[in-house]
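Homework help board

Subject: predicted structure for assignment chain

Our instructor gave us this sequence and asked us to write out the predicted structure in token form, then describe one feature. I got the tokens but I'm not sure how to describe them. Can anyone check?
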Amino acid sequence: MVEPVVARVIQAHPFTRGLHADDQEIFVQCAKRLQLPPGDYILRRGEAADAFFLLWAGEVDLGIASPAEGFLRLDTIGPWEILGWSWIVEPFRWNFDALAMTQIDAVALDARSLLAEMQTNPRLRLEVLERLLPVTAERVRSSREKLFSLETRLRRHDDLVSSRGPLAAAARRRKSRDGKPA
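My token output:
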């Protein structure tokens, strides 16, 4: 049996609010409650994308985790937002990591069940895609801007410390002033 809070969240969440009652019931049947503490990963890049999340409490950082570099945050997702779109696009693998920054309360929807329902219900398929695509487009745009900004900062840093940059030139002047060859 589905927890009553799950049905209430599906009725109230901006992503599912206004869906036909039959379609909301499909969401309820595909749903379970998810609670995670800060520091837990909700999804990991490269793993099977088998769920879709309706957050109602907490914050999640979306980005890329690297053992050597740590976590590169590209976006933060908060209450009443959605998490995960890779479940709808082959190869059904997560493209990013998602890390709980605070206590998370969410509805986790079984992606396979929802996709199966969407195959037989054109109204549901259209509603989900019309609601999901703008969010996906905005996240791609935001990630692109963040990566461009990061690349710009890295290039400035490289120029500062490279042999032709101002820091290298200052070091050469200092060495020549001290009588050491530059």
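Reply (TA_rk): Your tokens look well-formed. For the description, you could write something like this. DSSP finds five helices and eight strands in the chain. That's the kind of observation they're looking for.
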